[in-house]
């Protein structure tokens, strides 16, 4: 089965609600003709309702940037999977390197979040990726394997359809420095091999692996032309509707 490309915008902690609503309208309009691509946008929690309304019944799905692993209770400041679902969220990003770096996210807490997401019938975008030191030390695949195995602990083949892996080399996020298409392909192929070990080969072949790290209109086509690069998790370029739509167009082109 050919994998449908999946492009998700990660707005991070940017835009006011009003700006986000405008961005959502523009993204939905500009992406409408690329039906061969699955497209999502992950605004801040505070924007989910307003952005969700603008995206309703359109081609762009609503995503969230994080989730707590408990469903409810005394967890001040946190947001749960049932809450996200009640707002129409379909996908949740987990284990982003900024969460790992600044908010104490570990492979174990990523896995608990993945379980909470799957338990609500939502889909998870699990981020993995090495730091520059790890790449230079030659431990990229070791690090990525640990993170993938950690995120997917206890996730069976019957749940694999709700999983997307986002390979995001930390040194490429927000730096303007992109992995070469060959670097991305090497790691994506290794991740797919690992998924075949964790699940089985057909299930691994169906699982989408996004690339993230300074993907932009200028480099998207080349990255997306690689056989195991099935889409992108887009930070900076997702804040500009035209740039984001150009990446979606490149993804559509990659399967035309
Ligand atoms: C990200 O934060 O997931 C990301 C890939 O950011 P950027 O595109 O800005 O590098």
Short description:
The protein is α/β, with parallel strands linked by helices and 256 residues long. 43% of the residues lie in helices and 15% in strands. Helix 7 (140-151) packs across helix 8 (181-198) and helix 10 packs parallel to helix 11.
Topology:
Layout: E1 6-10, H1 17-31, E2 38-42, H2 48-55, E3 60-64, H3 81-86, E4 91-94, H4 97-102, H5 107-119, E5 123-128, H6 132-136, H7 140-151, E6 163-167, H8 181-198, H9 201-206, E7 208-212, H10 217-224, E8 231-234, H11 241-254
Parallel strand pairs: 1-2, 1-8, 2-3, 3-4, 4-5, 5-6, 6-7, 7-8
Helix pairs in contact: 1-2, 1-11, 5-7, 7-8, 10-11
The protein binds phosphoenolpyruvate.
List keywords for this structure.
single chain, 256 residues, alpha/beta, eight-stranded parallel β-barrel, 8 strands, 43% helix, globular, binds phosphoenolpyruvate
How many strand elements? 8
Share of residues in strands: 15-25%
Q: Report the biggest beta sheet as strand number plus sense, adding barrel if it closes.
A: 8 strands, parallel, barrel
Oligomer: single chain
Reading side by side through the largest sheet, how are the strands ordered?
A: 1-2-3-4-5-6-7-8
Which term fits the overall shape?
globular
Low-confidence stretches: none
Give an account of the 3D structure.
With 256 residues, this protein is of the alpha/beta class. 43% of the residues lie in helices and 15% in strands. The chain contains 11 helices and 8 strands. It has an 8-stranded parallel barrel, surrounded by 7 helices. Helix 10 links the parallel strand 7 and strand 8. Helix 10 runs parallel beside helix 11. The protein is globular and about 45 Å long. The structure holds phosphoenolpyruvate (PEP). Phosphoenolpyruvate binds next to strand 8.
């Amino acid at each position: 089965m050919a994998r449908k490309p999946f492009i998700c915008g990660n707005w991070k902690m940017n835009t006011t609600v009003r700006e986000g609503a405008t961005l959502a309208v523009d993204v939905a309009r500009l992406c409408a003709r690329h039906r061969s691509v699955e497209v999502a946008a992950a605004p801040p929690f505070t924007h989910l309702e307003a952005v969700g309304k603008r995206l309703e019944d359109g081609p762009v799905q609503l995503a969230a940037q994080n989730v707590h692993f408990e469903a409810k209770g005394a967890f001040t400041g946190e947001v749960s999977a049932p809450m996200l679902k009640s707002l129409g969220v379909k996908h949740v990003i987990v284990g982003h390197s900024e969460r790992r770096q600044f908010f104490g996210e570990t492979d174990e807490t990523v896995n608990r979040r993945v379980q909470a997401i799957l338990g609500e019938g939502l889909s998870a975008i699990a981020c993995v990726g090495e730091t520059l030191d790890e790449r230079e030390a030659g431990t990229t695949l070791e690090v990525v394997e640990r993170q993938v195995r950690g995120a997917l602990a206890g996730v069976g083949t019957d749940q694999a359809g709700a999983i997307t892996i986002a390979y995001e080399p930390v040194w490429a996020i927000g730096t303007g420095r992109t992995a070469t298409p060959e670097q991305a392909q090497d790691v994506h192929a290794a991740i797919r091999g690992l998924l075949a070990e964790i699940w089985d080969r057909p299930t691994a072949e169906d699982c989408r692996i996004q690339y993230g790290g300074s993907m932009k209109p200028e480099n998207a086509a080349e990255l997306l032309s690689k056989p195991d690069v099935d889409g992108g998790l887009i930070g900076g370029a997702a804040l500009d509707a035209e740039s984001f739509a150009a990446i979606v167009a490149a993804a559509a082109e990659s399967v035309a």
